[in-house]
Here is the input.
Amino acid sequence: MTLRGLSKTIMFFLGCLMVVKAYAMPPGAVSEYELKAAYLYNFALFTTWPPEKMAADGSAIVFCVIAQDAQVASISGLQSKKLRDRSILVRPIVSPEDGRGCHVLFIGANGAEVLPQLLEVVRDAGALTVTDIADFARKDTVISMAIENGRLAFDVNLLNARRARLTLSSKLLKLARSAN
Amino acid sequence: MISTSRTTSRVGASIIASVLLFSMATVHAAESAGITAGQLVDIPFEQLVTLEVSSASRYSQKIGEAPSAAVVVDAEEIRTFGYRTLADVLRSMPGLYISNDNSWSYIGVRGFSRPGDYNTRVLLLVDGYRVNDNIFNQAYIGSEFLVDVDMIARVEFIPGPGASAYGDNAFFGVINVITKSASAMPGSTVTAEAGSHNSYKGGYRYGNRFDNGAELVVGITHYDSEGRDVFSPEFGAVAHDLDDERYSKLFAKFTYQDWAFEGGYMKRPKSNPSAPYETIFGDKRMETVDTHAFINASYSTALSDKLNLSGNLYYGAYDYDGDYPYVGTLNVDRSRGRRAGGEVRLLSTAFAGHKLLGGLEYQKDLRQMQRNYDVTPPFEYFKTDSTPHKYGVFVQDEYAIRDDILLNAGLRYDHYSQFGGTANPRVALIYHPSPGNGLKLIYGSAYRAPNAYEMFYGDEDTDGYRGNPDLRPERMRTYEAVLERSFGASWHGTLSVFHYDVENLISQITDDTDTLVFINGEDMHTTGIELSAEKRWQGGARIKSNVSYQEARDKADDRWLVNSPRLLAKLALAVPLARAWQAGMELQYTGERRTNAGEVSGYALANLTLNRKNLLKGLDISLSAYNLFDKEYEDPADSGAFVQDSLKQDGRTLRVKLDYRF
Here is the structure.
C-alpha cells in the first residue's frame, strides 16, 4: 500500500469510528479554560454595577484579563457574545495602570505578582475582580474559582463586593460554594 | 588538510519564496475537543456548574496528567530571572545541565551529554515545528536558537523517551517551546540591551489582535558581542577578539480562525578562541555560521464536539559554514539541509473515559549536502548528498479507569527509507487523587536514527574521515516512578526515580587506518533520583528548588561517563521588593565531571536579576549579574576537536535590559 493510501485508510477508519461513537455518548468533559470563561460571563450577567459605571447606553462591558495566553484566548472568545444587549470587549492587560475602566477584572496564573498593585488601582473603581489562583488571592477578590472533584466551584467574598459597590444576584450566591 | 565536522550558509531568500502553505491540522492543537466559551454561555448557569472539567490535546495536556515529570518555565520567569537564551531556561530545570564549547551549547539529561555529540538525543519543537536540522539532527539551544527569548510564552521540558508520540530524537526528552500570542504582547515593544564584553542587543516586536479575530505577531532582533579574551595555557597566549558572536533573528506568526502560519529566520556567525581541529591559534578567520529558516502552516478544527482534527505542513532549511584556517590554506566545511513534511492528527473523546489520539507524519529530505574543501590550493576532500524520506504512524490512548486513575498508552511505528522500521511503545499508569497529588509509573522505549553527518561525512577516499552508511538506530528502554505531593497550602513537591538502559549508541572512534568513523558500539545505563519542591507565597514571592543524583556508566567497563555530573542542585527565589521592584536569585550547583583525561571540579553559580515593570509608563527595566561571584569553572572538551581537555567558561557578566511598550 502506498503511503497516501495507508494514510487515507487510517483516517477513514478513525473518522468513521469516531463519528459513529460521537452521537452515542453523553457529553464529555469540558476544557478548563473554556469553562472558566463561560463562568466569567455568567458572573458578569448576574452582577449589577454602580450606575456611573454603566453610563452610556450600549457601551461595551470591558473584561480585563491578565493570564496565560491560552486562557486569554479562551476569554477572548466571549467577544462574539452580547451581555444584556451590550457588546463584550476583552482587553489583555500588562501593567496595573491598565486596570482602570474595567468592569470585570480577571487575574489568572501569571498575574500573582502584580495583584497587590492591581487591586490598589481598582479598589474603588467598581470592578468585579475574579481569580483562579489557588488560595492566596481569595481574600482580596470578589470571586475566586477552583476545581473541586472534577467540577469548577466558586466562592464569593461579600465584603469585597460591597466595597466595590457591586450587587450580586441571589441566583449567583446560591450557586456559589461559599458566600461570606 | 581536512578540518572538521561542520559548516552553514545563506538560506534566506530561497526559502521564503518556496511556499508550501497548504495543510491539514496543527501541531499545537487546540485546547479542547470542541466546546468553546461562546457555546457554553448559552447553557444556563445552574447546568454549567455540573459540567466536568478537563483539558484535551497532546500538547496542552495538564502537567499533572502528563505521562512524565514535565517541567514548565513561562515568560514571567524568563523575565524574573533574566534568562538570555533557551539554554539559560533549561539550565534552571531539574536534572538538566548545559555545557559549551565556544561554538554551541549542549544539554545534558539524566547524566548524559558526551562531548562531541551534537545534541541529537533531545527533540526541540517551536509551536510543534521540529527544529533539529536534517544533517546533524542538532537541537540548537544557545544564542543559535531560532527564536528570541522575548518571543517565548513558555518552555516545557518533558523528560524521558517521547518516541511513542514524537519519533526520532525524542530520546532523553522533548523541549517544547510555545511562542507568545498577540494578546500576550499587544502593541509595539522596543528592546535594548547592553552587557559585558561589549554585547549589545536591539529588538522590536509587535502584536495585534484584529477585530475579525485574526492575530499577528512579529519580532526582529539583532545581537552583537565581542566576547571575552581567554588565556589559553595550552598555547601559552591570550586569544584576543576571537570570541565574536553576532546574530539576527526574525519571527512572524499569523493566526486566523483554525489556521496558523508561522515563519522564522536566524543567522549566527561565531568565532572560537580555542582553536578547534588544530587550526592556527589566534587566527581571526576561524568562524562558524549557522543559518536556519522555516515556514510552518498549521490547522486545527473541531469536526464535532468530540472530534478534533489538526495537522501541519512545513519546510525547513539549515546551512552550516565553517572556515578553518591552517598554515597555507583555509579549509571550508559546508552543509546544506532542506526538508519538507507534514503531520495529520485526530483526537477523539467520543468513547466515554477515553481520549484517543492517532496520527501520521511524513518527512522528505530534499537535500543533505556535505562538503569539505581547501581554498588554496583548491582541493575537494569529499562531497555527498542524499534525499531519503521517512514516515511515522502513532496512536495514543488516555483511559480513565476511574475518576482518579489514568492509563496512558502510546505506540508509534517509524519507517526510514534508508534502514527500515522501528516500533516504540510507552505505558504510564497515573494515579491522581487530587490536584497536586499523584503517582505515575512509566515504562518507555525510544530510538535515535543515525543522521546524515554520521552516515555520510567523508567518503572512501577522504583522508581522516569516513561516513558509515551501515549504522543502525540507537535504542533505549526506561523505567520511571514519579510521586507528586502538595503540602499545606502552597508547597508542591515531586520525587522521581529512574533507570535508563541504552544500547547500540552511535559513537565516534579512530579505526586502525587512523580514520574517524561512527560505529554502533557502546551500551550504557543510568540510574538516578530527582527531588524538587516549590512554594508560592501570598504577595508574589516564590521558591523553586531541586536536587538530582545520578550514576551514568558504560556497560562494557562500568566506567563513569565523560561530562556526567553525579550531583545537580538548583535553587531559585523570586521576591517582591519595595517600590514594585522584584528580585530573582538563582544558585546552581553542578558536581564534578570526568573529562577524557581527568576531571573538572564541581562549581556553584549565583545569578541575580532585579527588575521593575513600568518604571516610567510603558518602560520596564531589568539589571542582571550572571556568575555573580566570578567563579572559575570548566566544561569537558571533545578530544576529537580540541587539544584542551576542558574549556574555561564565562566569569561574571552583567546586563541591562530595557523594554518600552507603546
Observations:
- Chain B has one domain: 12-661.
